[in-house]
Amino acid sequence: MPFSSDARNKIRETLIRFRKFILNPKVRGQSLERDDVEYGYVGIREKGFKECEISISDGLLDTSGEKYNLDISGESVEFKKGMESEEDSEIELRVLDSYNRNRKQSEVCRSIEGDEDESRHPLVKEVCRLIDFRAAWTPKLEGELRHLLRSLKSRQVCAVLRAQSDERVALKFFYWADSQWRYRHDPIVYYAMLQVLSKTKLCQGAKRVLQLMLKRKIECRPEDFGCVMVSFSRAGDIRKAMQILTLMQKAGVELDLSICNTAIYALVKGHKLEKALKFLERMQVIGIKPDVITYNCLIKGYCDVHQLENAMELISEMPFKGCSPDKVSYYTIMGFLCKEKRIDEVRGLMENMLKDSKLLPDQVTYNTIIHMLSKYLHADEALGFLREAEEKGFFIDKVEYSAVIDCFCQKGRMDRAKELVNEMISKGCTPDVVTYTAVVNGFCQVGELDHAKKLLQQMYKHGCKPNCVSYTALLNGLCRSGNSTEAREMMHMSEEEWWTPNAVTYSVLMHGFRREGKLSEACDLAREMIRKGFFPTPVEINLLIQSLCREDRASEAKKFMEECLHKGCAVNVVNFTTVIHGFCQKGDLEAAVSVLDDMYLSNKHPDVVTYTTVIDALGRKGRIDEATELAKKMLHSGLLPTTVTYRSLIHHFCRQGRVDDLLELLEKMLPKQDFRTVYNQIIEKLCSSGHVDKAYKLLGKVLRTASRTDANTCHVLMESYMKKGNSLGSYKVACRMFNRNLIPDIKLCEKVSKELMLEGKVHESDKLMLRFVERGHISNKCHHAGFGQGVHLA
């Protein structure tokens, strides 16, 4: 039974009060110990009371990261000053000015070598196994994990973090472990966690780990700040990535070459090459000498903006700057030349490697070029370099052959691909599972499924066992040809064939059923996927939800989404918005609002698209007052309205003629996000709704700018008056346009003038056309001949 709105409000208020209670460092006179609150996970131990621990079922199961989004007063103030309050775009240059070239860096012991050996330790494997079964957690299993945690060494904890295929799960384990009684992370665990997060877009998680390190006085080095910078740059937030330099300065950590290289990398990745070049200049001024990594980043930046000539010029200048280019410098440019199929220039660059930099093009060079050309589907050119490498005596192994074969397969040239496979066998270079899988996938792409099945069986005869990728390629071909049921049966036979389906296999079948309209089967397969420990992504969940909503099965979509959420899948705001849109399309606004309230309870904050969806649905039902309140709530949440939000509100308000209410709401919205054509759209919508006089009252707001768009709006208003038989109204609009130096459409004004003549308003008719004469748009002669009867010009 769904909660009423009053009940939801009470629950929400209770949660807020409880959160304030938890976050208060002194509650009812009871002092709390040991980092009472740490960025959203709680390890509370009140004096004389039993320890209160967060359950792993509340942590590892929630892979959305929302549980750790609390902002702790007092702990993150210094971080925020460095991260969010600075508006100067040149912040990184000012940080460079404070560089102290005489200051020595302290050495921090952070060696985590041996993690690879530790990953094979029985304790590490057992912990990873328990984490993999987090979807079926019980208090007993959690107790086992807690017991194992206390037996792990610091390097073994690092190995557990690195072993997780989903970095979000690694972050949750990090939080959970740190909240346990009689356990404290060693500094190298923090370093390992930052390194793991630097390879992802989980920038907020990396930021919080760095916050913990600063709060707990763990000594940091520039590399730690660099990990956070890289994570922010991966997430596309270059501004915050560069603001890490200010935080680093406030923490008393001195700049070095590594963090400067990271900053240049972030700027290049954010397509801010000019800033990267300025940063390089300032580095050199303060005494930080760039190395080959610095220049390679800039070479990549030039290539990204298609300035290959500048990149090659930089390579030629590097020796004069005391830094010789390496092979990576050349390979970077070669990659872009290969992409554009500029083969002659690739060969010229290979000659320059030897001539200018004394770098001999070797087997690695040829392998790199072959793979680059294959990546961009230049099959014949890749095969040409393969032949050239063979002629020069370089050994070409199955990896290079497989790359070229896959390229031919992707282009649908299966005959050529088969010839190369036979050539490999004749030369004693036995194809491996990767080679055969590429050919199987190629047959599936061209629709030759029988050949793909036959080749899969022949792999055993050639001493090559098909793997999960091989079978998944075939299953994908079956699903795309509309044979998802056959693919499902083949997956059921996986144990007999000695292969194990993975997340991609399940995803392929799930979307195969979805494309065929078998949504129940697709949802069942998704549930099985979760039971096996594979979690569908938010995009995959959304595709299923969207398909259900299109078939008017929004209730099933909601149920499926809730199941995914409770099982630990990364359900996000887009998934909730899709369900809300499904209910809105169905006309069930109560259910849509209920899902909106559930978002708050699930700590999923609605975005502007969510609000706009509900606002539009309320407007279509004529519930304007509720739509207004929701729009105000959206503004209060700090969300900026989009053009779609404005258009929806304008449409529904104008349709009911509630212009005053609309203008009152716009006064609150426009300061938040300006929308230049908002009044143009209001006037045009009022005209189409028949409220022409109300539209005329707003004409002054449009004529302030006197643009071409404003002229078009005036023409719409004039035509609306003409349709109503009010030529005098059109005349007034035209006169106001002339007063603002806007020239109305002559043909439209001719129609207005003729109507005025027919109505006996000769003076207005002549005066309108005289305005055109005064501005030289029609001649005196034309005026006398057609429109000037009774008017004598001086």
UniProtKB/TrEMBL annotation:
Signal peptide: none
One protein family per Pfam: PPR_1
Pentatricopeptide repeat-containing protein-mitochondrial domain location: 194-284
InterPro entries for the chain: Mito_RNA-Proc/Resp (IPR051240), PPR_rpt (IPR002885), TPR-like_helical_dom_sf (IPR011990), TPR_mt (IPR057027)
GO molecular function, one term: mRNA binding
Residue ranges of PPR repeats: 256-290, 291-325, 362-396, 397-431, 432-466, 467-501, 502-536, 537-571, 572-606, 607-641, 642-672
Keywords on record: Repeat
NCBIfam families for this protein: PPR (TIGR00756)
Family statement drawn from the similarity comment of this UniProt entry: Belongs to the PPR family. P subfamily.
Protein known as: Pentatricopeptide repeat-containing protein-mitochondrial domain-containing protein
UniProt source species: Fraxinus pennsylvanica
